[in-house]
Amino acid sequence: MPKKKNIVLGVTASIAIYKACEIVRRLKEEGFLVTVVMTSEAEEFIKPIVFRGLSGNRVYRGLFDLPQEWEIEHVSLAEKADLVLIAPATANIIGKITSGISDDLLTCVVCATKAPVLICPAMNEGMYNNKITQANIKKLRSLGYKFVEPKVGRLACGKIGLGCLAEVETIIKEVKRILQ
Asked: Would you call 164 a catalytic residue per the annotation?
């Protein structure tokens, strides 16, 4: 029996965070092990216990939380990951990764991993189309980071536009393609 693949799911502060719950459920159905890393801002939208219940694993949050066993968490998570998936990914997290800023657990995991990184943006259309955001995405693509493009739909501001998190099935399909 082949070893189950480990996915570190980075969850950031987007209204699309509710779709991350479905992503965890679908990844588990596909036989993946899922470990969730939440930014502190993401906790303003949803509590970590929801992801713990869905994943069956501890949810990692703060860079300086005391570990249950001694390990340097961002390094151990980065080493265990077969894929780091960030969904939803805000303009903030994309900018921090592009700039090499590692000031929270998720950005440290991304910086330390040798695994592929798949980023699924979700934000307002103006933020997504901003020249800086687009330049950041272009730079990350040139460095080998993968993206699942957002779709057109109803944004949190009520307008219809580009910036909605891609469909869960589209994200799962890309995860499976990368991990073949």
From this structure: no
